[in-house]
């Protein structure tokens, strides 16, 4: 199990830096850059770091727990710890809103997510099972199945 972390400043430009950092760590873990799991993980990192930066105005710590290739069935975990004790709250937004969908996206992409108090702040986490989507479609582990269909994601 590879466990790595990155300190994130309360600055929106940090979201792009966190994505680049996560992408390099994911590639080093044996998950292919073009693997749908890698794309989904980067999107989840982006959403959780954005929430911490935008809604708390405080530094945060991004943590990734990446099981090795031999632990193919172990989940991959993304966590963001911040200094705000306010609970994350999914919002209902209308079709014209440019934000407010982050936790709904996390809920739709992750197999599990949640949060817990940590000191004076909190830790928001999500997990992806490496084989769930492929097994459900009868493809077996290692098949290339995107959990979010044709959703486009632009890296910054």
Radius of gyration: 15 Å
Uncertain runs are 132-156
**Shape designation:** globular
* Structural class estimated from helices and strands: alpha+beta
What is the total tally of β strands?
Answer: 5
SSE ordering: EHHEEHEEH
Average pLDDT, to the nearest integer?
Answer: 80
N-end to C-end Cα span: 28 Å
Strand content: 15-25%
Q: Count up the helices.
A: 4
Overview of the structural elements:
This protein is 31% helix and 23% strand. By secondary structure, it is of the alpha+beta class. The protein is globular, with a radius of gyration of 15 Å. It starts with a strand and ends in a 20-residue tail after the last helix.
Entry summary:
The protein is an alpha+beta fold and 156 residues long. It has helices at residues 14-27, 36-56, 102-109, 132-136, and strands spanning 2-8, 60-66, 76-82, 112-118, 121-128. Helix 1 (14-27) runs antiparallel to helix 2 (36-56).
Identify the notable features of this structure and list them briefly.
156 residues; alpha+beta; 5 strands; 23% strand
Give the SSE layout.
Layout: E1 2-8, H1 14-27, H2 36-56, E2 60-66, E3 76-82, H3 102-109, E4 112-118, E5 121-128, H4 132-136
Antiparallel strand pairs: 1-2, 2-3, 3-5, 4-5
């Amino acid at each position: 199990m590879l466990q790595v972390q990155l300190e994130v400043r309360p600055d929106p430009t940090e979201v792009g830096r966190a994505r680049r950092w996560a992408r390099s760590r994911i590639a080093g873990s044996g998950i292919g850059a073009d693997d749908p799991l890698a794309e989904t993980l980067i999107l989840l990192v982006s959403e959780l770091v954005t929430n911490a930066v935008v809604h708390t105005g405080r530094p945060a710590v991004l943590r990734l727990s990446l099981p090795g290739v031999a632990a193919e069935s172990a989940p991959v975990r993304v966590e963001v710890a911040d200094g705000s004790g306010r609970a994350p709250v999914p919002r209902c937004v209308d079709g014209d809103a440019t934000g407010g969908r982050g936790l709904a996206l996390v809920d739709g992409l992750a197999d599990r997510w949640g949060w817990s108090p940590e000191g004076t702040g909190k830790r928001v986490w999500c997990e992806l099972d490496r084989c769930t989507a492929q097994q459900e479609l009868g493809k077996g582990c290692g098949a290339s199945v995107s959990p979010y269909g044709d959703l486009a994601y632009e890296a910054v």
